[in-house]
Amino acid sequence: MRKKLLLLFITIISSLASGQDKNESAIVLELFTSQGCSSCPPADELLDKIRQQYQDQNVFVLSYHVDYWNRLGWKDPFSTKTFTDYQRAYGSQFKSRSIYTPQLVVNGSEHFTGSNHYKTDIALQKYAKSKSTNVIMLKNIKKKQEEIELEYGVEGDMFNTITFALVVSERITVVSRGENRNRTLKNTNIVASRKVTKGSTGNVSISIPNWITDKDELSIIGYTQDTSLKTTGASKIRI
């Protein structure tokens, strides 16, 4: 009887958690973009198409807004120096002389111009054949006034860090200045806040920026990376 109750308890807990199945592929697309960049809107549109096309698969899209285009007259409301620093870390890993937008990084392993449909399709096909080395479970999520708390667990030991990205499903912005002045832009899966930690289990708190409203559809995307920033697993849970 006790054993049956234990199995029932485990089943209930598992139903409240979100995570990919073992040996599945996980494709993480990180787009570094800016509302102040005139060549970024086509990449933003492509990211949105991918999100819709692969919404029921293990394809995770994130839009990181960088701040170095803000000097041209329009301050991207979703941009932070933290995301620019993250992009620079990729630049060092890829041995790039400079960073650029729109840059699409696929599974931390390769990068190219984010509006390139052909390369994106090839990358999606390529990484769909790769198996993840980590399985991530996200559970017991609690939304408070200024932060979101959750528990996590990672199976497998071939990772260095785990990133938790608070994501806003979409926003429409009318840009009045800068390279995209007088344009209405749609941004998808905007990273609002990011927390990086280590350890296979634990509790994390992710801050909620003041520009987020009650109308926003939120989720948490968690993904593990090795020491070279290559993705080793990913999961998502809606809030």
From TrEMBL:
It comes from Aquimarina mytili. Keywords: Signal. The keyword Chloroplast does not apply. The keyword Mitochondrion does not apply. This is DUF1223 domain-containing protein. Residues 1-19 form the signal peptide. PANTHER family: LIPOPROTEIN LIPID ATTACHMENT SITE-LIKE PROTEIN, PUTATIVE (DUF1223)-RELATED, PTHR36057.
